Amino acid sequence: MMAERNAIQFSGHQPQLFTGQKGRILELLLSNKGNWVPAYKLSTIALQYGARLLELRAVGYVIQNKTERVGRQVHGAFRLVACPGETESLSFAKGGR
């Protein structure tokens, strides 16, 4: 019982709890919420940005991704659609651009 009384509980969206690469990626996505962020910008923060995005998705962030062929190259991009506890916008949920 003593541990329950002294436990700190957070509720809702708490982006300031993330530090390091995950926090910097979240900050970039939040500042561009709804807009596509090129993968190369995420790779300047963390080469394993996919792992950080997976961690953010696991705590409830809705992050979409897309790939686009440009000549012989494939360009990837990501966008933050909703934070934990928010509902997705219809245009984002349906893949709207």
Count of folded domains: 1
Strand order within the widest sheet?
1-3-2
Structural class: alpha+beta
Oligomeric nature of the chains = single chain
Q: What is the CATH topology classification name?
A: Arc Repressor Mutant, subunit A
Total number of beta strands? 3
Q: Could you estimate the helical fraction of the residues in percent?
A: 25-40%
Largest sheet: 3 strands, antiparallel
Query: What is the CA-based Rg, rounded?
Result: 16 Å
Q: What do these coordinates show?
A:
The structure is a single chain. This protein is an alpha+beta fold. The protein has one domain (18-93): Orthogonal Bundle (Arc Repressor Mutant, subunit A), CATH 1.10.10. It has helices at 2-6, 20-31, 39-43, 49-58, 90-93, and strands at 37-38, 62-70, 73-82. Strands 1-3-2 form a three-stranded antiparallel sheet. Helix 2 crosses helix 4 (49-58). The chain starts with a helix and ends with a helix.
What's this model, at a glance?
With 97 residues, this protein is α+β, with helices and mostly antiparallel strands. It has one domain: Arc Repressor Mutant, subunit A (Orthogonal Bundle), CATH 1.10.10.
Give short descriptive properties of this protein.
single chain; 97 residues; alpha+beta; Arc Repressor Mutant, subunit A; three-stranded antiparallel β-sheet; 5 helices; 3 strands; 22% strand
Topology:
Elements: H1 2-6, H2 20-31, E1 37-38, H3 39-43, H4 49-58, E2 62-70, E3 73-82, H5 90-93
